[in-house]
């Protein structure tokens, strides 16, 4: 056969093949479409933006277009994808770099593509002492991976710690809770986390921490990897290829449309995370996925070799282990038939086939050009759709050579406006050093936070990352600049700083800022040889304003008081609010103490003016304590302590005045502290004594009642008066135990005297406001004890002060009702000296009024005290109350009270307070005389 004939037959064969192909296409089009293949993708964690590409591929129909019906399952533990893929329950899974361990353990897993080019694993360490040192975690409690799940061990962190010389045996490992609150609460000091996830929670609450990444030590693992099994590839090669391609297309879409996919996740998958959390995760994923610089799904065998070597150093793999078949390599199917291969072989032999060869070369050139065009189009698409601003900048001139839309959007300008300008035109004037840094870096990279100014004058904060690149076409250095708008983050940080350092009500520095400024002023005064004065200011009678007008009006008063104080000092001085109604002032640079006198007097005068609170007026004064550096103390704590002592001295001297700290105040404070410490052991040491003072029925002159009074038999000081220790007992909380002891002693003697002297005998027990207002079921214990000893409620009278009735809360009312229901009577002590109101007597169950000794002391016919006492007696009787007059010391006082109708008298005329045994003897003598 001639060569011409062979060529003709070859061409005829091509024609026949083409006709067969056309017929196949026509028949294929006429057949019904195949049903979608059902496959399952197993995630390694719960739904979040970490798996955004798969949601996008499903939502946008990329899987459907590939002939696949994909079901996406959440993961309960990191090992679930590997188990389900090997068992055939899922065809595809998402796993970490530990898939390499599974492969070398004989499990037939194959990595189809890498999504995270860098692992998101980092180590978060609580910054508790201000020292940033990774070695500080040695000896501490840490959470690094799970203790039971080998696929959540964070192996790169183990390799990192080993490389840094920190053995795992030097730490106390705690099983991972995946709750960052354990780091905040101090349950652990270090915590393995995803850089995309946990920092969001910690930043929101303002928790201070340090981040340590294995990449800092050259340990660079892959993050999430899409994988399948060898059997899936062998049985369904086309399905594997289609699933991989659709997934990568979904990832490209997700990284370019982050807000849309965040909304999709919340709408169709989970609402566990806020939208801002998902977007934070998306932003943090960009440098890990690197969608602009690296083809999605790209995996580098050399990087896997690096990972294998890291595992070998941990003793988890043998050195130089090989892993053939671990990485997916799709093979191009051979579609040509044997007729085609014979024709090609014949054409290669024949010189006449040269034309076919040239045609093939032309086709390859066309295909190469198309591939390049598609690659450029894909790069341009990713460049333009990137969520961060990207620009190519001439390093020498600062001119822009190319930008993406997001860059123009961040700067607040159009494309043309940006390209016509230069980098220096947009930078905030105060951040001009970043322009010089850009030019000075040469070929080095640069990361910094700076500000840009928009055309409307607004300022936008940006995180900027600059990398030097070589461009042959331009002939001199250029920089690739990537920026991200972090203005909202900066505002949040500023708000957190404001809340941490300033009082939210008055906008004055709070306790923390005050301490910082005082440290600075002390250091300055020490250096310059000058004085610094600290004024400790407490508002007098502020509690009454809160109780009568409400906390809202109290807040208004505090704001006005802060403004008055600021108006009295220099601009350079610091006014702070420590809390409640306590303010402090730092007066710096004083060459004499007289300056602090003038300012303190000025503040006192400013407080004298009435405070306008809506329709009401309030009057408060101030008590000021003054201490000087370095005269009184040399450090912050002692200065504040001394200023506080001086302030209490001013209050004790009558309020509305200032007092300087003196050593005598320190001595008094030490005595109070020592006395309080002694008081703590007084009950256990049986040092308390109960004294009784008789209450006499004025008409008959007989003792019907007694008031129980506490005394303290101190082993060194002797008998201590209640005046000296009751206030200490109230401030320390010991008054509760003392009150309980007094009740039991009073109940014991009341039971005895009702049995031996008179069945209606009563004992009065005083209760301080702190005892009466405390939470809990205190009276339940009283009632139980009275039941145990067989004492009825009528044997006791509880004495309270008028101030308690100011707080008309449900708690006060309930306690009074408890006493009434138990038969215990109530006496209102010191009546007429407090905030007396007839509505109290009408509203509450009161049995006795006790006229204060300040009225009884000056009783005389026709005197105002006599008129007031008569009015109280008449009013009480009209309301069904009985009256006890305190402080009766003369027969004339007794006679005047008897004539006015007073029921009972109590005072030195009848007897002083005496021990229980003496009072018992007094009652016996009264019975003998009767």
Automatic annotation (TrEMBL):
Location of the EAL domain: 672-927
Residues annotated as transmembrane: 338-362
Ranges of residues in domain GGDEF: 530-663
Keywords of this entry: Membrane, Transmembrane, Transmembrane helix
Domain spans labelled PAC: 446-498
A Pfam family reported for this protein in Swiss-Prot or TrEMBL: PAS_3
Superkingdom of the organism of origin: Bacteria
Domain PAS stretches: 375-433
UniProt name for this protein: EAL domain-containing protein
């Amino acid at each position: 056969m001639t060569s011409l004939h062979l060529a003709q037959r070859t061409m005829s064969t091509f024609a026949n093949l083409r006709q067969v192909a056309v017929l196949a296409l026509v028949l294929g089009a006429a057949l019904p479409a195949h049903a979608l293949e059902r496959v399952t993708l197993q995630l390694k964690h719960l739904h979040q933006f970490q798996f955004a590409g798969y949601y996008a591929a499903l939502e946008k129909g990329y899987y459907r277009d590939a002939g696949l019906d994909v079901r996406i399952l959440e993961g309960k533990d990191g090992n679930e994808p590997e188990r389900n893929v090997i068992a055939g329950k899922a065809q595809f899974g998402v796993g970490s770099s530990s898939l390499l361990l599974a492969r070398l353990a004989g499990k037939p897993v194959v990595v189809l593509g890498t999504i995270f080019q860098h692992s998101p694993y980092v180590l978060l360490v609580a910054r508790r002492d201000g020292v940033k040192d990774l070695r500080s975690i040695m000896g501490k409690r840490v959470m690094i991976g799970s203790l039971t799940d080998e696929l959540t061990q964070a192996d790169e962190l183990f390799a990192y710690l080993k490389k840094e010389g920190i053995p795992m045996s030097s730490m106390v490992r705690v099983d991972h809770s995946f709750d960052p609150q354990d780091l905040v609460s101090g349950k652990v000091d270090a915590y393995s986390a995803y850089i995309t996830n946990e920092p969001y929670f910690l930043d929101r609450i303002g928790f201070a921490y340090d981040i340590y990444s294995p990449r800092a030590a050259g340990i660079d693992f892959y993050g999430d990897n899409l994988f399948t099994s060898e059997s899936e590839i062998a049985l369904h090669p086309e399905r594997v290829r289609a699933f991989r391609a659709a997934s990568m297309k979904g990832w490209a879409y997700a990284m370019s449309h982050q807000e849309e996919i965040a909304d999709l996740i919340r709408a169709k998958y989970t609402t566990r995370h806020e939208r801002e959390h998902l977007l934070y995760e998306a932003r943090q994923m960009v440098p890990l996925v690197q969608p602009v610089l690296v083809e999605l799904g790209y995996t580098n065998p050399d990087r896997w070799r690096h990972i294998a070597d890291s595992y070998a150093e941990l003793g988890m793999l043998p050195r130089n282990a090989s892993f053939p078949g671990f990485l997916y390599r799709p093979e191009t199917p051979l579609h040509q038939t044997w007729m085609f291969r014979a024709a090609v072989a014949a054409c290669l032999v024949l010189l006449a086939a040269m034309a076919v060869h040239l045609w093939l070369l032309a086709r390859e050139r066309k295909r190469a050009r198309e591939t390049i065009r598609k690659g450029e189009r894909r790069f341009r698409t990713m460049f333009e759709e990137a969520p961060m601003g990207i620009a190519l900048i001439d390093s020498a001139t600062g001119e822009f050579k190319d930008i993406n839309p997001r860059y123009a959007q961040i700067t607040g300008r159009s494309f043309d406006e940006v390209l016509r300008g230069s980098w220096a035109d947009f930078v905030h004037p105060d951040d001009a050093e970043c322009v010089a840094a850009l030019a000075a870096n040469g070929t080095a990279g640069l990361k910094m936070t700076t500000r840009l100014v928009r055309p409307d004058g607004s300022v936008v904060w940006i995180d900027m990352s600059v990398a030097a690149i070589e461009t042959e076409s331009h002939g001199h250095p250029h920089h690739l600049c990537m920026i991200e708008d972090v203005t909202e983050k900066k505002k949040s940080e500023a708000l957190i700083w404001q809340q941490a350092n300033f009082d939210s009500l008055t906008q004055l520095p709070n306790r923390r800022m005050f301490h910082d400024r005082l440290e600075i002023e002390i250091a300055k005064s020490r250096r310059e040889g000058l004085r610094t004065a600290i004024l400790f200011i407490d508002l007098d009678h502020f509690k009454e304003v809160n109780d009568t007008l409400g906390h809202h009006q109290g807040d208004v008063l505090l704001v006005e008081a802060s403004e008055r104080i600021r108006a009295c000092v220099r601009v350079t001085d610091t006014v702070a609010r420590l809390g409640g109604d306590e303010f402090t002032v730092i007066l710096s640079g004083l060459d004499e103490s007289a300056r602090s006198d003038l300012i303190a007097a000025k503040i006192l005068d400013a407080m004298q003016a009435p405070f306008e609170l809506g329709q009401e007026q309030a009057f408060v004064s101030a008590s000021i304590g003054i201490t000087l550096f370095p005269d009184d103390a040399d450090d912050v704590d002692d200065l504040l302590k001394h200023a506080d002592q001086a302030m209490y001295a001013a209050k004790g001297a009558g309020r509305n005045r200032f007092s300087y700290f003196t050593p005598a105040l320190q001595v008094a404070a030490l005595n109070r502290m020592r006395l309080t410490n002694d008081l703590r052991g007084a009950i256990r040491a049986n040092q308390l004594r109960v004294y009784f003072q008789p209450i006499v029925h004025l008409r008959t002159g007989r003792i019907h009642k007694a008031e129980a009074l506490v005394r303290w038999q101190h082993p060194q000081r002797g008998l201590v008066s209640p005046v000296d220790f009751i206030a200490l007992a109230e401030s320390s909380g010991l008054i509760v135990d003392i009150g309980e002891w007094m009740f039991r002693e009073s109940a014991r003697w009341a039971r005895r005297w009702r049995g031996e002297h008179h069945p209606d005998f009563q004992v009065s027990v005083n209760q301080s406001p702190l005892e009466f207002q405390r939470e809990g079921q205190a009276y339940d214990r009283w009632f139980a004890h009275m039941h145990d000893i067989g004492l009825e409620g009528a044997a006791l009278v509880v004495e309270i002060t008028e101030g308690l009735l100011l707080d008309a809360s449900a708690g006060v009312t309930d306690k009074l009702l408890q006493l009434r229901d138990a038969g215990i009577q109530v006496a209102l002590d010191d009546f007429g000296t407090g905030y007396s109101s007839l509505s109290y007597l009408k509203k509450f169950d009161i049995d006795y009024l006790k006229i204060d000794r300040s009225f009884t002391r000056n009783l005389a016919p026709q005197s105002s005290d006599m008129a007031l006492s008569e009015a109280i007696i008449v009013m009480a009787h009209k309301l069904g109350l009985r009256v006890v007059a305190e402080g009766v010391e003369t027969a004339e006082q007794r006679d005047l009270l008897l004539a006015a109708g007073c029921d009972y008298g109590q005072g030195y005329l009848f007897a002083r307070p005496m021990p229980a045994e003496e009072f018992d003897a007094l009652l016996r003598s009264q019975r003998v005389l009767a």
